[in-house]
Model the fold of this input.
Amino acid sequence: MDVELTCYLSGEIHTAWRDEIEAAVDELDLPVDLTGPVTDHAASDDCGVTILGAEQNAFWKDHKGAKLNAIRTRTLIGEADLVVIRFGDKYKQWNAAFDAGYAAAQGTPYIVMHGAEHAHALKEVDAAAFAVCETVEQVVAMLRYICRGELVRPTPSLSVVR
Amino acid sequence: MDVELTCYLSGEIHTAWRDEIEAAVDELDLPVDLTGPVTDHAASDDCGVTILGAEQNAFWKDHKGAKLNAIRTRTLIGEADLVVIRFGDKYKQWNAAFDAGYAAAQGTPYIVMHGAEHAHALKEVDAAAFAVCETVEQVVAMLRYICRGELVRPTPSLSVVR
Amino acid sequence: MDVELTCYLSGEIHTAWRDEIEAAVDELDLPVDLTGPVTDHAASDDCGVTILGAEQNAFWKDHKGAKLNAIRTRTLIGEADLVVIRFGDKYKQWNAAFDAGYAAAQGTPYIVMHGAEHAHALKEVDAAAFAVCETVEQVVAMLRYICRGELVRPTPSLSVVR
Amino acid sequence: MDVELTCYLSGEIHTAWRDEIEAAVDELDLPVDLTGPVTDHAASDDCGVTILGAEQNAFWKDHKGAKLNAIRTRTLIGEADLVVIRFGDKYKQWNAAFDAGYAAAQGTPYIVMHGAEHAHALKEVDAAAFAVCETVEQVVAMLRYICRGELVRPTPSLSVVR
Amino acid sequence: MDVELTCYLSGEIHTAWRDEIEAAVDELDLPVDLTGPVTDHAASDDCGVTILGAEQNAFWKDHKGAKLNAIRTRTLIGEADLVVIRFGDKYKQWNAAFDAGYAAAQGTPYIVMHGAEHAHALKEVDAAAFAVCETVEQVVAMLRYICRGELVRPTPSLSVVR
Amino acid sequence: MDVELTCYLSGEIHTAWRDEIEAAVDELDLPVDLTGPVTDHAASDDCGVTILGAEQNAFWKDHKGAKLNAIRTRTLIGEADLVVIRFGDKYKQWNAAFDAGYAAAQGTPYIVMHGAEHAHALKEVDAAAFAVCETVEQVVAMLRYICRGELVRPTPSLSVVR
Amino acid sequence: MDVELTCYLSGEIHTAWRDEIEAAVDELDLPVDLTGPVTDHAASDDCGVTILGAEQNAFWKDHKGAKLNAIRTRTLIGEADLVVIRFGDKYKQWNAAFDAGYAAAQGTPYIVMHGAEHAHALKEVDAAAFAVCETVEQVVAMLRYICRGELVRPTPSLSVVR
Amino acid sequence: MDVELTCYLSGEIHTAWRDEIEAAVDELDLPVDLTGPVTDHAASDDCGVTILGAEQNAFWKDHKGAKLNAIRTRTLIGEADLVVIRFGDKYKQWNAAFDAGYAAAQGTPYIVMHGAEHAHALKEVDAAAFAVCETVEQVVAMLRYICRGELVRPTPSLSVVR
Done:
């Protein structure tokens, strides 16, 4: 029987990696529920003041927005069986590292995706991870293996081992 | 994919705010399960003695009723992803503040609704909240944003950002 | 919206109280899942040795049986929103009091049913309960009130307050 | 052997009830560590802006202060074996009810002190309490009994039962 | 290095078993802190009404007393590394079985002491215990072994194995 | 009503015991969801390096594979109501004992299957189990009893007691 | 009575902020136990391979070191009543954000120190904090207030309010 | 300030590794409390039947002994900041792997000591560990580093980096 997973996709919001994972999960028909934060950067920044009232001080604008977003992220990380956290090339991305610490303290396994250039700076985040990888293909291969036990060997074999 | 939320509506029971939220959630077809206490004031006061036997002392009448109501409220707050707590204009409403403390200790996010005149007296309750607002429209806008990432900008734009 | 409850019926197994509650829940169409221990006394006593092998010493026969039964009871008490515990007229019924302590430590509300003659001896068990009653009718009236907020007033009114 | 207790004194800060309890505990030499919030009202209100910087909006002044006070109160309620919560004659005192809910969700026993006129409004708070009383003398008598098992009977006996 | 234990002695209060354990622990100088409920039966029954006010209904007298006693017992069972629970010859002793369930749900090991005649009725309580015995000597021998690893062999050897 | 169980089958992967349990559960139509680790030994060993990149050092190859497998096993053991752990004739099978300790600390009941020759070496694992058995038939009989209360007596009776 | 605090100082290790806090705590004689990570950068990087054996691949060198450091940090964050997390001017400092998430999930209050230029990027980290500040003086003033309720007003008054 | 650690030494009991660690900890004056199981093999096997009464069936002899030993081990693993688990050359040592799983589920860091020949069979146990090593010297070096941040570099430098 396949294993059903709820998988929260945390971190970088400026590339299409979430869509790529979703497409691959659909194509393989994996029993994985993908969740994530609001990825519209402007909406994510403005939600607090738009709904709850303007602030003169940028700090409180950010504060209201971040707390409103946190209702969603806390709920979804709390429900996740697995968190995948991507660190992109740009920005500080402290929220991604925060989510890693949150998942670790909860005892929820997480996978980190990042380029090799960040390996040393992310060593504490990686050390508490269950896997560290670079590509969407690797994430999808792991989801496939975790859910179905299917492992695609590289050429020349290419046969699916199950 | 939309985020499904179970949302407990705590506090004031003398205005129609729960119905208004329910109507708006229905109209927007949001994936939100709304729960709440028994809102019939007389039934809520009398349930203990009606079912379990009369008491001469008002204290024990209240005690039996409050404990019976607590079976419902503990269960529903325990299941909630989010608690919305409304403080109205009248009464002490200590049970609303109790629910806030209960949610906080459980780690469940809560939103507080109250008029500006209560802001100072509610500062500890507000400080542990994930959002503080005044109107049903704001609560609904937050539920919409949390579930769907949809943020309705005020005029002139009015466009839905998603 | 009605509140769905999972309700574990613990304790006395020699009268038909579980069936009576089940019949009333069915008649009222309450959204209550009723669970309970294996109530066949002989099976409950013999299950351990029948499946796992005979024992010369009665203590170990009891031990194997009690542990096998505990797999079921731990699972169901763990899943319950509410536990109803009935103390009958006969026997020591220490397992019923054990279940009360277990539910209390888990933070799961429980209701105790017993005759007035046991009130003093059960005072610690009653003190941690959310309600204490004597009859099946009272249990059903509580389930109805908790799930639907319906309170049936005694005559002369008899009207359902909702 | 005496039972050592850490007891957090929550709620009303405008009368000398904490000092009276402390004096009685000292006189009886009870092994009770008494803790509590900062009871200087002005300092409690101003601490946030004084240390962390002024705010134009009173809401954020309160917010910063309430959060700073919460570092102390969360720590001490977390460490308490018992919480005593006093509701006075005046003010909304929602923070006191918040502390009650917080203690209840943590599983920490609490005692409520209040005048009879508040009994109905506090019924939910009282229902989750381990004792409800009105006077400092009653609190001290409970601490004495809990720690030492000493119960002072009223006249004519007056003898200490141990 | 010796293991320090905090050991709560629950259950029967009409024989001197607690004193006997204490004496033996003192004689062997075991690093064991012994705790327990208030064992003065009259004080334990009357504490609620004596301190908190008289009740006409015996049920509420018991209720107030049992809750006040529970402040002590919950605190001490919560702090215990080990609970020893004695079931005597008389009375229902449901509070002892309640304590067993409470300890089990908390994950705290407990030892049960009872006569062979209660073995079948206590099978669920015994099944969750870490040891079942009949005498004070056995309890003390276990405490000695747990703390120091010392096991006194029966004759003819009598030598202490360490 | 039948009890639904989620049952994780841990341990030995070189015989067909999981398939046999699954076949019997299907035949009896028991409401049991069976889960387990990836049982393809080669895939289980190679998954880490195949997906995440080759390693020169066998230790890190094992490390990457074991962590990837742990995402599945942690999730499934976390969801299980019951864990069945089989120790076979060969190999060290330390992962099976690890799963037993993990389940015990989580408070999840587990059943151990092993031959009599391993009884002494497995005494700590067995002591924390809810049942110890040798055969698939015994596991199935327990699942049947736990879910349905059905106990099949040995000859001459053979009747199903329910 | 002063409140005793155990305070973990997380984050930036290239300036003397920890020493400055320690000096101020000593001067004020505050009952605060200050803890923190190993702050020798070279030792922190090399500890894994120095003790556990060299690695050719920098990733595994980092991995071994980060895990060894995590034994210390997990223990100390687990014991902390309060975490103070400083983000400096340089480096990614993802481990600091990880610690914030870890503390948040544990329910441990934390304070963030950072320059105004990081406010937007740290908004999620700040939103879950109990206070956000920039200087060591502010941290010390908070510790003083939390422990003793002492609030030093700015000029012209300068009087200590207690 | 040095970090105080409580460290439980689990596993192999036939060599003097615990004494060697203790001697080194004493020599370095590290603030480490070392705890462990009863290491007298005969006493550990016989404690149950010696104290609680003989058994004809070896299984129940083992059962009684293992549960009595578990009172000690559960208490000490529960109190440990760190667990060190040694797998020796001989025996199945399933209890050591059980302790590893127990510590992992509790969130307590553990270190594994074993020879290289066991690496593959222990891969799941090692994967959840915070460090894997072979010698007592390595354990002591880690304790020294964790407590004091002292790292002894190999020759030629030999200087203590602090």
Q: What stands out?
A: Residues 5-37+80-148 of chain A form a domain with the Rossmann fold fold (CATH 3.40.50.450). The longest strand of chain A covers residues 5-11. The radius of gyration of chain A is 17 Å. The longest helix of chain A spans residues 58-79.
